[in-house]
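step=encode ok
step=design start
structure_in=
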C-alpha cells in the first residue's frame, strides 16, 4: 500500500483547506485511517482518525473545526480544516492503521 497526500498550502487565519490522501492497494477500506501533523520543533501528533466503518474521532485541538471523512470507492481519506489558526501550521501526514503505512506529508501554513 502507498499513500499520497496533497492539498496543503498557504492560507490566512480563519480560512479553510481540504487535504486528501489517496491510497493504492486493496486494504484501504478495511483499515482505520488517520491524519497526523508535525509542527517545526515539535513531535508528531494525532489529529483525527476514521474507522473502517466511518466513525470519526478528533484531538481536542481539532474538535469543532476539522472533519475527517473517507470514500472507500475512491480509496481516499479527507481532512476538511476550517477556522484555521497559525498554530495549525505543520506538515500533515496521512496514515493507515495508526502508522503501519505513512504518506509523504503535505505542508499547511496558516499566516497572514
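sequence_out=
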Amino acid at each position: 500500500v502507498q499513500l499520497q497526500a496533497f492539498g496543503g498550502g498557504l492560507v490566512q487565519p480563519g480560512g479553510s483547506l481540504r487535504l486528501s490522501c489517496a491510497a493504492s492497494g486493496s486494504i484501504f477500506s478495511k483499515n482505520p485511517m488517520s491524519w497526523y501533523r508535525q509542527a517545526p520543533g515539535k513531535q508528531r501528533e494525532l489529529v483525527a482518525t476514521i474507522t473502517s466503518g466511518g466513525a470519526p474521532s478528533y484531538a481536542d485541538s481539532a474538535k469543532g473545526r476539522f472533519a475527517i471523512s473517507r470514500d472507500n470507492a475512491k480509496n481516499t481519506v479527507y481532512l476538511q480544516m476550517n477556522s484555521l489558526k497559525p498554530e495549525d501550521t505543520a506538515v500533515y501526514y496521512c496514515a493507515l492503521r495508526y502508522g503501519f503505512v505513512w504518506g509523504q506529508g503535505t505542508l499547511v501554513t496558516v499566516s497572514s
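step=design ok
step=annotate ok -> The longest strand covers residues 17-23.
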